[in-house]
Design a protein that fits this description.
114 residues, mainly beta, 4-stranded antiparallel beta sheet, 11 strands, 0% helix, 53% strand, globular
Amino acid sequence: VQLVESGGGLVQAGGSLRLSCAASGNIFNGYVMAWYRQAPGKQREFVARIFDSSRANYADSVRDRFTISRDIAKNTVYLQMNSLKPEDTAVYYCNAVGLNDNYWGQGTLVTVSS
């Protein structure tokens, strides 16, 4: 079982990036998929999550700028990030939570320059 993130990189403030998280194995359906991030010197924090119903919730700091979505056919969850700010700079991690298990990806670095 693996979660593989991609799409990170360097972007100027105000720009956009789309992160992807490809899930292997039978962990996509029935799991709550989420994105977290960890900035240098800070604790990992919640960014967004999406449920089977496609209902989503967001951290206050990213609401109205970020959108989480999932493509069940591709076993992939996305994080569209718009109007990026320097404070969004962090390693972004994909997370999958089931009834009895919890998986993390290796992370992808997003750097927003001012």
